[in-house]
Amino acid sequence: MDTKISVKNLDAFYGKNKVLKNISIDIPRNKVVAIIGPSGCGKSTFLRCLNRMHEVVGGTITGSILVDGEDLTKTDPVLIRKRLGMVFQKPNPFPTMSIFNNVAAGLRFNGVRNKKVLAPIVEKSLKQAALWDEVKDNLEDSGVNISGGQQQRLCIARTLAVDPEVILMDEPASALDPISTSKIEELIFELKKNYTIVIVTHNMQQAARVSDFTAFFYMGELIEYDKTTKIFTNPANKKTEEYVTGRFG
Amino acid sequence: MINSEIQPDIENSRVEINNTAVRPPGFFKKVFGTYNLGDFIFERLTLLFAVLVFLLVILMGYEMYVGSKISIDKFGWSFLTNSVWDPVQEIYGALPIIYGTIVSSFLALVISVPLSIGIAIFLSEVSPGWLEKPLSFLVELLAGIPSVVYGLWGIFVLVPWIRTDVEPFLSEHLGFLPFFRGAPYGFGMLAAVLILAIMILPIVSSISRDILRSVPQSQREAALALGATRWQSTKIVLKDAKSGILGATMLGLGRAVGETMAVTMVIGNRAVISPSLFDPSYTMASVIANEFTEATSEMYLSALIQLALVLFVLTIIINAMAKLLVWSMERKLGTR
Amino acid sequence: MNPSKFFHVKRKITSAVMMSLSLVATLIAVIPLILIFYYTISKGITYLNIDFFVAMPKPVGESGGGMANAIVGTLMLIGIGGAIGIPVGVMSGTYLSEFGNNKFGATVRFLTDVLSGVPSIVVGVVAYTLVVVPMKHFSAFAGGIALGILMIPTITRTTEEMIKLVPHSIREAGLALGIPKWKTTILIVLKTAWKGIATGILLGLSRAAGETAPLLFTALGNRFWSTNVMQPMASLTVYIYDYAKSPFEDWNNQAWTAALVLIIMISMLSLLFRIITRSKFKTK
To answer: Do C19 and B66 touch (CB under 8 A)?
Structure first.
């Protein structure tokens, strides 16, 4: 298996509280890994550790996270976040910016000002996010005047524009209607050709539909990690079985 | 890949945190390793300005202490208790000035607070929605008028009115009281009290209004559902808001004590203690405004700076108390 | 009438009386406002002419003249004050909201509250001992420093509160794109909050424009044209004070005009900001 991200002995804390306990997991290149588990199990925290967003809210970690062999915990978090893009639970476009500027934001604030350079990247990113046809005529409108589903795809386009290697998705469809959700899921299918994707979801059908591998977290621990088909048909652990069959969570 | 290691106890995990590569690294690592250089500078830069604000307040107290050193050394506590303020003889006792400050502020509160509570009740309990905004705006407008314009109006409108109408009326009907005796100058304590009452009205009423609004609506509904009248439910709200309104009053007091221009222009500026509201008086702020540029001797200037220091300390105490009262009310209601 | 009914009626009357009293209190408060505006406008407008804006004050005894130097002086003084108060206020407010979740932050927050309660005349005294004494003469610079100090608490607290209103998700969006925190804070968070911050700045500036006490022995006043910040400088407020106390009727009248112009200037300041801060996107 070609490993993109290798997490070893990861512990995560909020103050004195240990929220992730000794997680070790390998995430393969150009595959979709779903993280499932009941709320409070640490799945979002795990995702946020991967691009060092966990420390933004005052958390700390120990252990190592290797991306292509390089330890993330020992580099500038800003550089890491360019390589590991993130899409959040609720769409969060920048309210003061136009659609164009929202997509261009990551590049623009890192020094790319030339509109001739930006325009094709913005167009490509919006096309990748399957939003181009809907907004191409009003790129100068505010990024918050479109529908929730469009906003989330705008956020995905914004993430794609900085050309990341990995896309982290934190319940990207949980605030959306079913049609928007299916659009996002189709998108994930397209994107995995070029990107490694880690998606946190509380929706087991969604995990089963979009992912190649599934990791089940419970009480801050990684209980089971395997091929998605295996997890959902024949899990090795009893807790996993109870969860995927809907007996708790 | 199943992971079932037993969780280490929390005390041990603390030790671990301190050894981590993520935090807290040394200076070198912070800049060139796990931290972003720009972020490092940005945090320190904003911190610098916050430190500046911190130092500024300390510096203010220090500067005034140094500036008033010779006066403090010479007069000590008698500065506060001696009632003679005589720049010619170089004797500086601030008692009449402190008296004038306290009396003018206190009487202004006596007039202003009941009115302010009335306004607050009207705006938060009675007024229909459409009327509330313009009225609030008018009260805020009152707060935006510069002090010197109040003074100007005081000199040419309020003082003549007091001289020709208010004071003759009061001495005729209430002249048996020591407060309303003497010649009707117009300029004096009464004018200062009235103008202060108007000036602190906006702050006391707007804070009281916010405080009444912060009382949960459920309190009113509970009272009304029990068959209480509007006034009875308002009384319950007022009871909840008691310490908050007291805090608003203290803030108003802080304003009144430090108010300078309008008071200087109408109070008559004489350092005497007189029971009559018709007589001129003096406040700490108005002494400083009036005499600072005339202070030719070192001792005179030092005494004036000491007065500023006393005023500084007094307003800090008043404002800290106001803050505590508003906090205690917010905590009680659990609104913060 | 039975006793309980009587009691009920009495309660209703008490309620009606108390509620009407609150209306009366509100009306009483509006009276001085109307009176002050009435006098300022009616008296101020009679002496308002072009000369007031372009001419210099005339010597004692000569009528006419204007306050061109004081209008420019007031603008320059609040300019100096803003140059000090705005950066300090915005930066320290940014510190408090972004990094100030600790004991030092709480201390600074308390001290800004203290500072906002300090009478402006006291700030004037401090500016005197800090600037005028070492320089050995009065100056616009000293007055500007006093005004700057007075602006700091308002701007600091509004900045902090307005930044805190920006949702955390916006910050995270910026950080997750690999934008450094300082750029996220300045270019995204501050930009989102800037209307609110501008309102705080405006409030600080317009209060400073109306201040007299801290200028009395710092900028002092000047009967001549001067734009030298190291020299005494005229201001509308100090002119109003001096002219109101003067025995000359002509000067008294000019004080009213100056008061009217001052109030108009303050309102224009607020109007200007409202135009500048109007949203780029029409819908909300």
So the answer is: no
Distance of CA C239 to CAs C55, C61, C235, Å? 14, 16, 6
**CATH classification of the domain holding C239:** 1.10.3720.10
Q: Is C117 in contact with B45 (Cβ distance < 8 A)? A: no
Q: Do A24 and B1 touch (CB under 8 A)?
A: yes
Domain ranges of chain B: 14-67, 79-333
Q: Which domain holds residue C168?
A: 54-276
Nearest CA in chain A to B5: A22
Confidence of residue C282 (pLDDT cuts 50, 70, 90): very low
Which of A6, A8, A13, A65 to mutate to probe the B interface, most B CBs <10 Å? A13
Contacts of C189 in chain B (CB under 8 A): none
pLDDT class for B209, splitting at 50, 70, 90?
A: very high
User: Is pLDDT at C277 greater than 90 in this prediction?
Assistant: no
* CATH code of residue A52: 3.40.50.300
Superfamily of domain B79-333 in the CATH hierarchy: MetI-like (1.10.3720.10)
Give residue A174's pLDDT band: very low, low, confident or very high (50, 70, 90): confident
Structural domain tally of chain A?
1
Q: How far is B205 from chain A (nearest CA, A)?
A: 36
N-terminal to C-terminal alpha carbon distance within chain B = 46
d(CA C163, CA C156): 11
The residue segments making up the domain with residue A136 are 3-244
pLDDT at A121: 93
Tell me how many domains chain C contains: 1
Q: Which residue has the tokens 């990024």?
A: A143
- Higher-confidence position of B30 and B93: B93
Which residues from B are below 8 Å from C111, CB to CB? 53-54, 57
A249 in a structural domain: no
Query: What pTM did the predictor assign?
Result: 0.86
Joined tokens for residue A2: 């070609």
Supply B186's token pair. 């117009």
Position C185 scores a pLDDT of 92
Q: Are A102 and A154 in contact (CB under 8 A)?
A: yes
